[in-house]
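re: ur question from earlier - yeah i can do the single chain one, its not a big deal. heres the input i used so u can compare w yours
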Amino acid sequence: MKRNRLIFCRQWVARMASIIETVVALVVLLAILVAGVRVLLEVQDLVLAPDVDEAFTSFLRSAFNVVIGIEFVKMLAKHSPGSAIEVLLFAIARQMVVDHTSPLENLVSILAILLIFVIRKYLFVPAFGAHMPGEDAFGTSSLLAAREQALRDADAEEEE
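and the output i got, formated as tokens:
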């Protein structure tokens, strides 16, 4: 019985962490919507800007930030290694494209992207993270299963 309480407590903590993570994802999503409106306004600034190159760089920086934010929210929602890899790829690409890095920094970024693709191709395990948090590999809620098991154990103790 004590073991079931411990399991239930751990699952409750995991569930609460998942809820907090979802709230954070919603807040980030709201920020992305605000930033997306700003990106649209930057298109207008791009047309009217005296220095088109600087305005375009600012536009790209904002657009990449919105895309990285979207990928970050997807990573929080999906909990898959693939979504985490996508966030890394976009962040590295943003660094290379927007910040006009040196040739050595470009080489390091390209090698990092290459390493990510190699890892994804040869070390990626598709089943890892394939189910949603709070569910087991069969898609059933582990929190619900633990609660049902605790009820069955309590009934068995009462019968004895």
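Confidence is low (pLDDT under 50) at residues 136-140. not sure if urs matches, ping me
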